[in-house]
Every structure is written in C-alpha cells, then in structure tokens.
C-alpha cells in the first residue's frame, strides 16, 4: 500500500482484495481476475459531516472531501480511510451479504499522511502531517486514538512487522526508526544511511526478516531492523541496464535542481528519485515508481544472502505512472496520468521473464478502470509538493 492522495489503488497484504480510489468514491473488488467479481464491485462514499454522528469536529469549510490515506486489513473484512477533513472512517464487510457498512467516523488530531492496519487487524495505525503516529481500535469503534510516537520531521511511510512486535517509520530527514510495538517509547534501532528523504519502508520476509526502503537519493536498501545494520544497497542511478532503457523517459525538472543550487545529492540521483515500491510475491518481483521517469522499473528480490537486487525490465509510459498494482496471477495494472490511455495492463510471461502489454487480456478490468477514472483528470501530479522534501546543504564562511 502507498500514500494515497486524491486517487490511487491499494491491495491487502495477501493480494486478494483491492481498493481503488478517486476524488469522490472508493471501489472495492475481491479479485482482479474473476469476471463475475469485476462485474459487481462495491462502491463506498464518505459520509458528510452531518452524517458522521461520531465525528466531534464540525467544519464549515467548502473544502473538497477526499481520501488522503487508506488501508485494508489482512483479513479483507475492514477498510479504513482518512479524509481531507481529518476524519478516520472505518467500514466492515458483511459476511452474509458482502456489503460494506460504515462502522464509525472519528476525529484525527491532524490530517492523516499514511495509514496501516496491524497484522492482527485490531488496530489502525496512522501517521499524521505533524510527525506523530496514533493508533485507533478497529473493534471499539468509538474509542479515541492513542499516541504511539513522534518524529521531529514529516513521516512519509510506516510499516509493521509480521508478528506485530515492531513498528517502522521513516521521515523527510532520511531516518528510519524501528520501535517496539505497542510500547513505541522503546526504540529497537535506527536504520541510517539514506542521503535524502525515505519515501517507502516495508517489513519483508526473504531469506530472513528485513526492512526494505527506498529514497529520494535513488537507492533501495535492505536492513536488519533488530540492530539497524544495512544488509544490501542498490544504487538505481548507477544501474547501466536501467539507464540505457529509460533515457528517453526522463522528465526531471532540472531547472528546479539547478536553480536550487544546494541540493545535497547529485543530478543523477535526482533523476532517479524513488516514489514507492509495489510487490509481486508470486514471482518475487517489485515495481519501482519514480518521481522523474515516465515509466516503471521491474526488479527481482534477492533469494539468498549472496544475491542482490536484479534488474528485469523497464516499462516506458507516455506519462507519469499514477499508481500500479499486481493481480493475484502476477500481472501488472498501471494507471498513468494520460487522458488518451489511463489504464494499461501487462501480462507476465513466465518463460520470457518479462511483462508484455496486453489490454485484451483482462478487458473487464480495463473497462472498469476507464469507467471509474475517466480521462484521469483527478489523478494527482506525483511530483506536486515533492521538491520540498529534498534537503539543502549550506556552506558557511569564516565571517558568518
């Protein structure tokens, strides 16, 4: 799951339930490969302030209400979303009818930035714009939030270990903090090494338990979160195979880079700043979404300590990728910020070990996405507000 602003897609940890978001609605499918399921998705809408009986806050503003963060529980029965009015909404799926019913709307201390469920599904954990993390009960629907931890910088992403014992948070200052959960005042470790903001973290099981991270510095790193040591690092901006394939897709705002004059990384790192990663555990692959490339890079996860991340292919796009998701069969759905072709479907060819474009493979899904997103005008520009995430370096003379 990724940071969702205005529009996007997320899938639950077991890849069975998918939620698509646009500016007005949430569309949920229990499968992306079953035609019967694709013909009958569930639409969720935010209640108004007046309808949110449990929401204490009243906002007379004419501001648009939309999702800023959302998450699905591992059991696929709970869905939570934070909206632009700083409210947390919780829905539950009926076992009898399959309908999604809203359970509560609760006030958040500040507007949400990122939301996840604990693996047990009992808690919703939310990072807000102020650098604080709060947990809300998913079973006691009216209970207020409980403060867990705080950063002095903007928290960009968070993840929880598979045993619910450790909570991992990352921020604009390049720090990854591993806290004991739920007693987050006990810090297990810090994972330090990124030169820029950490855009993504995820607890992942490979040949051992790790934290995987990506950053605006153009690197992907694997960490042992028990002691904070780095296990692997791949410098995407130095990968010759990737650079060769995507040179025509570069859309970096070099004017911003040159005019700033004091960004702490190189122009090559800036070109390959990473927005987030998406996983295909069926084939142990992951997709990289960039800020400055019109395309998606596919890499292989390492299977052993002696292996490293391996480049597979680069999928060129007409415009920036708004979001991507892998279906249960390992195929890839891409939503791009292009009015002529919002939805792209790529089938994975196992014999060739690569993805090939095939919008005829899953016509039902492509049709539904076109109907839901239209010409994609509501997709947020992925680069909007991202430039302020970069740190600046300053030189001081002896006279200062």
TrEMBL record:
<keyword id="KW-0539">Nucleus</keyword>
<dbReference type="InterPro" id="IPR015943">
    <property type="entry name" value="WD40/YVTN_repeat-like_dom_sf"/>
</dbReference>
<keyword id="KW-0808">Transferase</keyword>
<dbReference type="InterPro" id="IPR028884">
    <property type="entry name" value="Trm82"/>
</dbReference>
<dbReference type="GO" id="GO:0005634">
    <property type="term" value="C:nucleus"/>
</dbReference>
<dbReference type="InterPro" id="IPR001680">
    <property type="entry name" value="WD40_rpt"/>
</dbReference>
<dbReference type="InterPro" id="IPR036322">
    <property type="entry name" value="WD40_repeat_dom_sf"/>
</dbReference>
<dbReference type="GO" id="GO:0036265">
    <property type="term" value="P:RNA (guanine-N7)-methylation"/>
</dbReference>
<keyword id="KW-0489">Methyltransferase</keyword>
<comment type="subunit">
    <text>Forms a heterodimer with the catalytic subunit Mettl1. Interacts with mei-P26 and weakly interacts with bgcn; required for the function or formation of the mei-P26-bgcn-bam-sxl complex. Interacts with nanos; may be involved in mei-P26-dependent derepression of the BMP signaling pathway. Interacts with Myc; the interaction may be mediated by mei-P26 and may be involved in the regulation of ribosome biogenesis.</text>
</comment>
<keyword id="KW-0819">tRNA processing</keyword>
<keyword id="KW-0677">Repeat</keyword>
<keyword id="KW-0853">WD repeat</keyword>
<comment type="function">
    <text>Required for the Mettl1-dependent formation of N(7)-methylguanine at position 46 (m7G46) in tRNA. In the Mettl1-wuho methyltransferase complex, it is required to stabilize and induce conformational changes of the catalytic subunit. Required for binding of nanos mRNA and repression of translation by the mei-P26-bgcn-bam-sxl complex. May cooperate with mei-P26 and nanos to derepress the BMP signaling pathway. May cooperate with mei-P26 to suppress expression of a subset of microRNAs. May cooperate with mei-P26 to regulate bam expression levels in germline cells during gametogenesis.</text>
</comment>
<dbReference type="GO" id="GO:0006400">
    <property type="term" value="P:tRNA modification"/>
</dbReference>
<dbReference type="Pfam" id="PF00400">
    <property type="entry name" value="WD40"/>
</dbReference>
<dbReference type="GO" id="GO:0005829">
    <property type="term" value="C:cytosol"/>
</dbReference>
<dbReference type="GO" id="GO:0043527">
    <property type="term" value="C:tRNA methyltransferase complex"/>
</dbReference>
<dbReference type="GO" id="GO:0008168">
    <property type="term" value="F:methyltransferase activity"/>
</dbReference>
<protein>
    <submittedName>
        <fullName>tRNA (Guanine-N(7)-)-methyltransferase subunit WDR4</fullName>
    </submittedName>
</protein>
């Amino acid at each position: 799951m990724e940071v969702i602003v205005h529009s996007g897609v997320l899938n639950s940890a077991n890849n069975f339930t998918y939620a698509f978001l646009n500016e007005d609605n949430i569309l949920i499918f229990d499968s992306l490969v079953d035609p019967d399921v694709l013909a009958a998705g569930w639409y969720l809408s935010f209640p108004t302030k007046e309808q949110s009986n449990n929401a204490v806050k009243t906002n007379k503003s004419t501001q648009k209400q939309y999702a800023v963060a959302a998450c699905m529980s591992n059991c696929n029965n709970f869905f939570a979303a934070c909206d632009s009015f700083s409210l947390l909404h919780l829905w539950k799926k009926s076992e009898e009818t399959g309908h999604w019913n809203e359970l509560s709307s609760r006030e958040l201390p500040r507007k949400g930035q990122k939301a996840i469920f604990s693996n047990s599904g009992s808690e919703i954990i939310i990072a807000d714009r102020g650098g604080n993390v709060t947990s809300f009960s998913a079973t006691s629907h009216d209970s207020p939030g409980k403060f867990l931890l705080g950063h002095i910088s903007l928290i960009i992403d968070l993840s929880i270990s598979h045993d619910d014992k450790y909570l991992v948070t990352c921020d604009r200052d390049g720090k990854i903090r591993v806290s004991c959960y739920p007693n987050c005042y006990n810090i297990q470790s810090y994972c330090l090494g990124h030169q820029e903001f950490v855009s993504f973290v995820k607890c992942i099981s490979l040949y051992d338990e790790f934290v995987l991270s990506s950053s605006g510095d153009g690197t992907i790193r694997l960490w042992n979160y028990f002691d904070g040591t780095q296990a692997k690092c791949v410098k995407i901006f130095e990968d010759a195979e990737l650079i060769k394939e995507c040179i025509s897709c570069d859309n970096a705002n070099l004017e911003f880079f040159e005019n700033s004059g004091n960004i702490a990384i190189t122009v090559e790192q800036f070109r390959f700043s990473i927005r987030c990663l998406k996983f295909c555990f069926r084939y142990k692959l992951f997709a990289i979404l960039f800020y400055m490339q019109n395309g998606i890079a596919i890499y292989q996860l390492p299977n052993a300590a002696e292996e490293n991340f391996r480049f597979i292919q680069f999928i060129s796009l007409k415009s920036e990728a708004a979001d991507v998701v892998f279906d249960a069969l390992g195929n890839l759905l891409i939503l791009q910020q292009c009015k002529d072709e919002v939805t792209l479907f790529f089938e994975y060819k196992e014999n060739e070990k690569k993805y090939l474009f095939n919008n005829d493979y899953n016509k039902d899904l492509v049709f539904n996405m076109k109907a839901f997103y239209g010409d994609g005008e509501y997709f947020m520009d992925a680069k909007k507000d991202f430039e302020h995430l970069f740190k600046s370096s300053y030189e001081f003379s002896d006279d200062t």
